[in-house]
UniProtKB/TrEMBL annotation:
<feature type="domain" description="ACT">
    <location>
        <begin position="452"/>
        <end position="527"/>
    </location>
</feature>
<keyword id="KW-0520">NAD</keyword>
<dbReference type="InterPro" id="IPR050857">
    <property type="entry name" value="D-2-hydroxyacid_DH"/>
</dbReference>
<comment type="pathway">
    <text>Amino-acid biosynthesis; L-serine biosynthesis; L-serine from 3-phospho-D-glycerate: step 1/3.</text>
</comment>
<dbReference type="InterPro" id="IPR029009">
    <property type="entry name" value="ASB_dom_sf"/>
</dbReference>
<dbReference type="Pfam" id="PF00389">
    <property type="entry name" value="2-Hacid_dh"/>
</dbReference>
<dbReference type="GO" id="GO:0004617">
    <property type="term" value="F:phosphoglycerate dehydrogenase activity"/>
</dbReference>
<comment type="similarity">
    <text>Belongs to the D-isomer specific 2-hydroxyacid dehydrogenase family.</text>
</comment>
<dbReference type="Pfam" id="PF19304">
    <property type="entry name" value="PGDH_inter"/>
</dbReference>
<dbReference type="InterPro" id="IPR015878">
    <property type="entry name" value="Ado_hCys_hydrolase_NAD-bd"/>
</dbReference>
<keyword id="KW-0028">Amino-acid biosynthesis</keyword>
<keyword id="KW-0560">Oxidoreductase</keyword>
<dbReference type="Pfam" id="PF01842">
    <property type="entry name" value="ACT"/>
</dbReference>
<dbReference type="InterPro" id="IPR036291">
    <property type="entry name" value="NAD(P)-bd_dom_sf"/>
</dbReference>
<dbReference type="InterPro" id="IPR002912">
    <property type="entry name" value="ACT_dom"/>
</dbReference>
<dbReference type="InterPro" id="IPR029753">
    <property type="entry name" value="D-isomer_DH_CS"/>
</dbReference>
<dbReference type="GO" id="GO:0051287">
    <property type="term" value="F:NAD binding"/>
</dbReference>
Length: 527
């Protein structure tokens, strides 16, 4: 498999990928070249310079994953990727400290006139009176967007003895109290803060959130910081407000259009400090995001889920730790029900029993669906497209939970309905090892690997021996065997583990045997 590492990604992550894949490194990648070469690649890693547009995605016939070595994914067309089942991942925490510290640096640089003082000194000037600044201590900092970076800035501002007013429609009071900030409305923040810093993504709600109208409501001498996304503060309005003295100063790292050229409205305005999107540019952050995304790409290319996927329901690391051993088992249970079902599946129920009921099991259910669809679908089914593919095929998916798992510590039962018939397969974990423990009413103990041949048959002497002879004569090695009974003892279920494929003719001859009710092959290599 081939990975494209664009935009000057740190070598640390690239080295990890090179252990398994061919990695093509392109520090500068013009849009036309990206369009031309993208069909070769299974994965792409980008920072913010490369735009992974719908046009790129449409041409990316082999692409399975897009990794954004950073937080913001606004340079990636996520709906287009999702529609194609391409996983999009980012590194939510890898550059948090870098962006937080850059915000503090920008606030200090602006309030103490450091950039202009340096610039004039480099020219041999000594302007002590001209560059008198203001202190942070005792001032009110308005933080809009109290996520990872906003909270980090608030924490550091408190250490500078600032008062912090925070606005975030999604923050709860308890968390704000724990951080030591005062929760406020948007209007309270803009009317009362001496410094305002924004830390949210650019969305239809946040675009242009601070324009001339809001700046006019702000305190005289207010200073603004934007190290989040260009466009949250209207650039033309900010330039005008600083020129007119409505806003005393601004420190900006991000722009509506990057790279910025000389004719940008914010360039050359005295009182505005500009950096060229340097928030994440520290050695540590670039190693962090590169390694995070490389690990995600490795997992995704091995068919495993990635906790930082942005086009799947998010899973916290704590929940992931609990559910990850079950994912493989659930896939194999899904694969088994599809193979044993009498026809196309109309609905599927995934029932959880035992300790696993305490966490969100959506991803485990997705794993079961992935396992159900992969053997019967042409393209690749993965954690991103499995739920929508099931929906497209009209398969109703439901979950059920029961605390009591009987004699097991945990149990997952996948039940598929096809017309009037039903197949139920249950599995459990013994340590980290998955086992199928029931198939319909039959109690078995099957390691779900390679291929299994599942045969309900009459409980009488000679049946098992006949099957053994047929397999032997066809040179098919049986590497495991289980016979499960039911309470009535009239029917048994034979499960043979076989490494090789079984020719259709041999399968037909087994099905035709007297005393064999059915014979179905489950191919776990298909999951
Ligand atoms: N300058 C740079 O190089 C960097 C910029 N960033 C940008 O910083 C921003 C924040 O990043 P994180 O803190 O990691 O994200 P986050 O997801 O942890 O936090 C975002 C916060 O914004 C809040 N929010 C969403 N809509 C809002 C609204 N309408 N009003 C107020 N709050 C709202 C959310 O509730 C959330 O708490 C992102 O846009 C990211 O792309 C991140 C890293 C580096
Ligand atoms: O890759 C970069 O330097 C940009 C970082 C950034 O803006 C982000 O992570 O959202």
């Amino acid at each position: 498999m081939k990975v494209l590492a664009a935009d000057g990604i740190s070598p640390k992550g690239i080295e990890l990928l090179q252990k398994e894949f061919e990695v093509v490194v392109k520090d500068k990648l013009p849009a036309e070249e990206l369009l031309e070469i993208i069909p070769q690649f299974d994965a792409i890693m980008v920072r913010s310079a490369s735009k992974v547009t719908k046009e790129v995605i449409d041409r990316a016939t082999n692409l399975k994953i897009i990794g954004r070595a950073g937080v913001g994914v606004d340079n990636i067309d996520i709906p287009a990727a999702t529609a194609r089942g391409i996983i999009v991942i980012n590194s939510p925490g890898g550059n948090t400290i870098a962006a937080t510290e850059h915000t503090m640096a920008m606030m200090l640089a602006m309030s103490r006139n450091i950039p202009i003082a340096n610039e004039t000194m480099q020219k041999g000037e000594w302007n002590r009176k001209k560059y008198v600044g203001v202190e942070l201590r005792g001032k009110t900092l308005g933080v809009i967007g109290m996520g990872r970076i906003g909270s980090g800035v608030a924490k550091r501002a408190l250490a500078f003895e600032m008062n912090v007013l925070a606005y975030d429609p999604y923050i709860n009071e308890e968390r704000a109290q724990a951080l030591g900030v005062k929760v406020a409305t948007f209007d309270e923040v803009i009317e009362n803060a001496d410094f305002i810093t924004v830390h949210m993504p650019l969305t239809p709600d946040t675009k242009g959130m601070i324009g001339m109208e809001q700046m006019k409501k702000m305190k005289k001498g207010v200073r603004l910081v934007n190290c989040a996304r260009g466009g949250i503060i209207v650039e033309e309005d900010l330039a005008e407000a600083v020129k007119q003295g409505i806003v005393a100063g601004a420190a900006i790292d991000v722009y509506t259009k990057e790279p910025v050229t000389k004719d940008h409205p914010l360039v050359g305005v005295p009182g505005i400090v500009l950096t060229p999107h340097l928030g994440a540019s520290t050695v540590e952050a670039q190693i962090g995001v590169s390694v995070d995304v490389a690990k995600g790409i490795l997992a995704a290319l091995h068919g495993e889920p990635v906790a930082t996927a942005v086009n799947m329901a998010p899973v916290s690391p704590e929940v992931m730790k609990v559910i990850s051993p079950y994912l493989n088992l659930a896939e194999r249970l899904g694969c088994t029900v599809t193979s044993l079902a009498a026809g196309p599946v109309d609905s599927v129920e995934v029932k959880y029993q035992g300790d696993i009921t305490e966490v969100n099991t959506n991803l485990v259910t997705t794993a079961a669906i992935k396992g159900m669809l992969n053997p019967v679908m042409e393209g690749e089914v993965n954690y991103v497209n499995a739920p929508s593919l099931a929906k497209e095929r009209g398969i109703k998916v439901s979950e059920k939970k029961e605390k009591d798992a009987g004699s097991f510590a945990n149990l997952i039962t996948v039940t598929a309905k096809s017309g009037d018939t039903e197949v139920a397969v249950a599995g459990t974990l013994f340590g980290d090892e998955g086992r199928i423990v029931t198939i319909n009413d039959f109690r078995v103990d099957v390691d779900p690997h390679a291929r299994i041949l599942v045969m309900p048959h009459i409980n009488r002497p000679g049946v098992i021996g006949t099957i053994g002879s047929i397999m032997g004569n066809s040179h098919i090695n049986i590497s495991g065997m289980q016979v499960g009974g039911t309470k009535d003892q009239e029917t048994n279920l034979m499960v043979l583990t076989i490494d090789d494929d079984i020719p259709e003719k041999v399968l037909a001859s087994i099905k035709a045997l007297d005393g064999i009710f059915d014979a179905k092959l489950v191919n776990f290599y298909a999951v």
